[in-house]
Amino acid sequence: MDDLKAKYLTLIADAADESTLEDLRVTAVGKKGEISLKMRELGKMTPEERQVAGPALNALKDEINSALAAKKAALADAALDARLRSEWLDVTLPARGRGRGTIHPISQVMEEVTAIFGELGFSVAEGPRVETDWYNFDALNIPGHHPARAEMDTFYMHRAEGDDRPPHVLRTHTSPVQIRSMEAMGAPLRIICPGGVYRADYDQTHTPMFHQIEGLALDTDISMANLKWVLEEFVKAFFEVDDVELRFRASHFPFTEPSAEVDIRCSWEGGTLKIGEGDDWLEILGSGMVHPKVIAAGGIDPDVYQGFAFGMGIDRIAMLKYGIPDLRAFFDSDLRWLRHYGFASLDVPNLHGGLSR
Ligand code: PHE
Prior knowledge:
The chain is built from twelve helices and ten strands. By secondary structure, it is α+β, with helices and mostly antiparallel strands. The chain folds into two domains: 2-86; 106-341, 2-Layer Sandwich (BirA Bifunctional Protein, domain 2), CATH 3.30.930. The strands form two sheets. Strands 1, 4, 5, 6, 7, 8, 9 and 10 form an eight-stranded mixed sheet that branches. Strand 7 and strand 8 form a beta hairpin. Helix 1 (2-14) packs parallel to helix 4 (47-86), helix 2 packs antiparallel against helix 4 and helix 5 crosses helix 11. The N and C termini lie far apart (86 Å). The chain binds phenylalanine.
């Protein structure tokens, strides 16, 4: 028994890996292992012999089992140590080269627009992209069978079989945030709402997801003149020009009355766009005086408060300002494009330091 013990303890101590150890376990204490076979011989012994050999064999078995377990743990520790050594990382090394990540032009333009309107006293409001048809349509004076619903190429969400409630929609514009903001904050109110919107449309100047910025100003003495001034200030600041000419074209939106689409004077001479000069006009937004029904839907008394609203395509004005010819490239995640058109992350746009250095 002493020989057996010495033999196995040495073999266990020398085992270099877990599979050798497992083989040893089988040959020593496995069902047909050397020690198990010895235990079977107990039956042929006299009771006196058995009284000595039995406990001794059991003790030997225990000793070998615990040697196996200890060695197994030691091997696992050694493996972990080896792995930690091979995967060692010097966290004090300098970071990757600077200027790799950039700010996407849409984020940049949202920041620029927010900075300009912030200066004019507007705060930022947000709403969900998955909307109820009440907020996206009805509350904005677009009832069930209004043609505007079809014109907007709406994406409808799925409803379970047998559920007759109107489906949710992916918001087709940022205008539902007008209603949500009126409900949450009441009047007077001055907000802008930047964010993603969705319409089923795809070509060089349309993508199924794009971005708008909504503006809403409500107070007791707001007129179309205020709208015009605010938009002129915005366009001058945004395009970084001293003078711009805006053209207000009569238009129609269910949620504003009167409504106007706004164009800016520009020139395309030599294939490059110049803002503020030339003989061309470029449409940049829809606007108008908020319809009394919309104000009432927001829980505000339209006999006391009135105001203006506008909705502008962010991607659109980003293309214009930064000379980006194809809208679809905004969403391709092509690193070369992102590096070319992206902005330095530390240059936060503000009116004093320059919007787009
Ligand atoms: N919601 C309109 C659109 O997406 C734009 C708009 C907003 C027009 C606010 C007038 C007032 O086309």
